[in-house]
Amino acid sequence: MREQLAAAGTRDESGVPLDDQQILQEVGIYRYHHPLENSVLYQARLLDLERRVATMLRDGQAIEKSNLFTFDNSLAKGRKMSDDLAKLMLRAYNAEVDIGIRTLKAGNVQTAKKRLESSRQAIARLGAMMQMRISEEFHALRIEELELTADWLMKKQEEREAEREERARLREEKRVEKELAEERARLDKERTLLVQTLEKLGAVGADDPNLVERIAAIDQAIAENDYRAANIRAGYVYVISNRGAFGEGVVKIGLTRRLEPKERVHELGGASVPFRFDIHTIYFSEDAVTLELELHRHFANRALNQANPRKEFFFASPSEVRDVLARKVGNLLEFSEHAEATEFFQSLSQWPNDRQLTT
């Protein structure tokens, strides 16, 4: 694939690659040039940088040139020509910076920096007779501006994703709280009816062992429900796969606190993916948060999305996850290594012939 991208990749007249997909593959995971805690700090740094750039432009320190160039044997005409050409060159250079900033994405900052360096070299080449060149200090500031802008864009993207995930987490927590409250109300109502029935039987000297057993079972269910409500770390760790959407050897390892964890799995198999997920196991843990984190860490180097660690898909077979999970929790009562992928196989024969051959 990389060779295909490289062959198809376009370059500008100076040989700088312009194919963002090619650059993304070559650069890999984004690394911050100037690590800061949040986007607000990046904005403050960029504002300070803009002031420094404006100061250098105002003080004539952005571009260097000879003051001894003559035109028509006139030093004054030579200086006028140098000044006019310097303004033109500087405008072209700054325009390259502006274009680079407007088109910046996480993966193409290297392209923008290369193009800016190429522009600087072209100015030095064209202005060689007048010893004209963009100053090192000014060029360093504009490079820093590109890097800070790219960092700021990436940080903003991370913050938006974190906010979106936090909102989803809060919605899930509220839903779980509502489910637990409704379940507690149902259990209380059922227990009250059973106790009243038992009291009526006792008033006439009768008894019903089955009612006593049912009340004891409800008391146990109430205790478990209250524990779930009080312990936010308790929940279900699930291992699921979707062969039709992601192929074989890919699993999702997640967590839900819902009373009916399968509902969460059914939601994941909604309209955003073409097929439903297959469940390999749903394991209840009193500390499901830690268990999920340990599984994610174990398979971290096999995550599909190496750029965003919050994603939960991994290159692993269900049996590999089972072995790791069993070492952490002991015997698993239920675990299915086989993925039925019913909808996928029902659909496969109806696919176009060229798609069947690549499956």
Automatic annotation (TrEMBL):
- Sorted alphabetically, which keywords does the UniProt record give? Coiled coil
Q: Which domain of life is it from?
A: Bacteria
Start and end of every Bacteriophage T5 Orf172 DNA-binding domain? 245-328
Extract the coiled-coil ranges from the record.
153-193
InterPro entries assigned to the protein according to its UniProt record, in alphabetical order? Phage_T5_Orf172_DNA-bd (IPR018306), SNIPE (IPR025280)
Which is a Pfam family this sequence falls into?
Answer: SNIPE
- Kindly provide the name given to this protein in its UniProt entry: T5orf172 domain-containing protein
Which organism's genome codes for this protein? Okibacterium fritillariae
